[in-house]
Known about the structure:
The complex is a heterodimer. Chain A has no helices and twelve strands. By secondary structure, chain A is mainly beta. Chain B is mostly beta strands. Chain B is 0% helix and 51% strand. Chain B is built from no helices and eleven strands. The A-B interface holds A 32, 36, 41-46, 49, 51, 90, 99-110 and B 2, 4, 31-33, 35, 40-45, 48, 56, 90, 92-101, 103-106.
Amino acid sequence: AQSVTQLDSHVSVSEGTPVLLRCNYSSSYSPSLFWYVQHPNKGLQLLLKYTSAATLVKGINGFEAEFKKSETSFHLTKPSAHMSDAAEYFCVVMPLPGSSNTGKLIFGQGTTLQVKP
Amino acid sequence: ETGVTQSPTHLIKTRGQQVTLRCSSQSGHNTVSWYQQALGQGPQFIFQYYREEENGRGNFPPRFSGLQFPNYSSELNVNALELDDSALYLCASSLAGGWEAFFGQGTRLTVV
């Protein structure tokens, strides 16, 4: 079975400092991995996706993530946090290979990112 | 905005009642997935509909059921509501063969 584990339930950074949100995955296949963000009272928004192409994936709003098969990790980073980055972040795996399973997603428990002025 | 709309935005029901939640998918998307997000948790996959047929189901009992209409909009029905059904219900639409699922803002269901 496939799963993702977000290693921190809460991360607090100061504005302008780097952000690191950690995610480990478990998969029998070469996984498709995603990061979604959820702002209060808003829907989930896709930040970036890894689908077996380049291992360093760039997303929106300056975020990027690196797929490391040897470490089964897919950590999300941003060089400089902005106040508007404060939100809930979810690491997500698609359970079976193939785009026919688009939308059948397994979510981690989430990491709350707090950005202090 | 994703173009996926859900209604209603908030709902309060009594234990034992039935509820219907609605979702209009993004234009051109033929697949709709439903998720339950309990407070402080990540969303959990309920089921998916593709061309009006159920196309996969998560670990939810049969009292959770759904429909997809010819225009690809969808309904989620929950019978015999329990207190633990209180959650944010999210709908996501996608195009079969595509990689991205687009989420609506959700319906907040409270069961009292």
